[in-house]
Amino acid sequence: MLEIAIENADISEVQCDVLIMKYAQAFPGADAVVANVLGRTGTKKNRINPTPHEHIFIKSRGAVAASSVLFVGVVPLSHFDYPEIRTFVSRALKLVF
């Protein structure tokens, strides 16, 4: 069963099977919070750097409430507009399912 939820909460406390994050060739926001928390459990932040068209799955090992985190590489935020957002979501869902 697929359930998609949009939460207004601390991202590290959202319980789910897979937390999907974009990686826009830098860590400007919530992605930085998650990467830093994962870093405390041994995942090196510099390993979380997928280029556009790449991705990385990481088991959270309890660092965040999500079982796994998927970082999907996207273009830098200055070029991340509606067509790129649609592509990001489509890719992420295909990777998860």
Write a structural description.
This protein is α+β, with helices and mostly antiparallel strands and 97 residues long. It has one domain (11-96): Leucine Aminopeptidase, subunit E, domain 1 (3-Layer(aba) Sandwich). It has 2 helices and 3 strands; from the N terminus they run βαββα. It has a 3-stranded mixed sheet with strand order 1-3-2, covered by helices on one side. 20% of the residues are buried. The mean pLDDT is 91.
Rg measurement, Å: 13 Å
Q: Total number of β-strand segments? A: 3
What is the second-level CATH architecture?
A: 3-Layer(aba) Sandwich
CATH topology description: Leucine Aminopeptidase, subunit E, domain 1
Low-confidence segments, given as residue ranges, are none
Overall 3D shape: globular
The fraction of residues in strands falls at: 15-25%
Largest sheet: 3 strands, mixed
Q: How many structural domains? A: 1
If you average the pLDDT, what whole number results? 91
A few lines on this structure:
This protein has two helices and three strands. It has 97 residues and is an alpha+beta fold. It has one domain (11-96): Leucine Aminopeptidase, subunit E, domain 1 (3-Layer(aba) Sandwich).
Keywords:
alpha+beta, 2 helices, 3 strands, Leucine Aminopeptidase, subunit E, domain 1, 97 residues
Ordered list of secondary-structure elements with their pairings:
Elements: E1 18-23, H1 30-39, E2 55-59, E3 68-73, H2 82-96
Parallel strand pairs: 1-3
Antiparallel strand pairs: 2-3
